[in-house]
Amino acid sequence: MSEPFSIKSTHSDRELSFSECDGDYFRVELKGGISAAIKVYGYAPHTHDLAHWFNELGAHTSPWEAELSWESLEGELKISAKCTSLGHIHIMVSLSDMLGAYEEAYIQAGIESELGQLTKISNGARDFFAK
């Protein structure tokens, strides 16, 4: 099983943690002010996997214009990142459970980071998702 990794906000106690990577599934936990955790089916045949998304994110060394986003096959995890001209990274995370059911649950939260943190985040993701 892979070592967990986290994305910690540079402006609050908010944190997005990835752990328990086992085959095609991994656990995602959002902490800080609100808390939620979900098991995510990470296999993504229709698009690149999440490790590729983090690699693409980490390749940026200067501010960019377009939003980078990824969504799991079953929609339980959505993550996107934008960068301001000053190098502030805004990561938006959505966790969903029981999509389409009467008891559907949904939480969305932002995490702020900085351009200089992207290599560390990307390396953590690479090590976590390495099989």
> Could you name the CATH topology?
Transcriptional Co-activator pc4, Chain A
CATH C-level class: Mainly Beta
| Strand order in space, largest sheet | 1-2-3-4
- SSE topology string: EEEEHEEEEH
Taking the sheet with the most strands, its summary is: 4 strands, antiparallel
Question: Could you give the distance between the termini?
Answer: 9 Å
What class do helices, strands and sheet pairing give?
Answer: alpha+beta
What would you call the shape?
globular
Key descriptive features of the protein:
131 residues; alpha+beta; Transcriptional Co-activator pc4, Chain A; 4-stranded antiparallel β-sheet
SSE diagram, text form:
Blueprint lengths: L4 E4 L6 E8 L2 E7 L4 E6 L8 H9 L9 E4 L5 E7 L4 E10 L7 E10 L3 H12 L2
Antiparallel strand pairs: 1-2, 2-3, 3-4, 5-6, 6-7, 7-8
Helix pairs in contact: 1-2
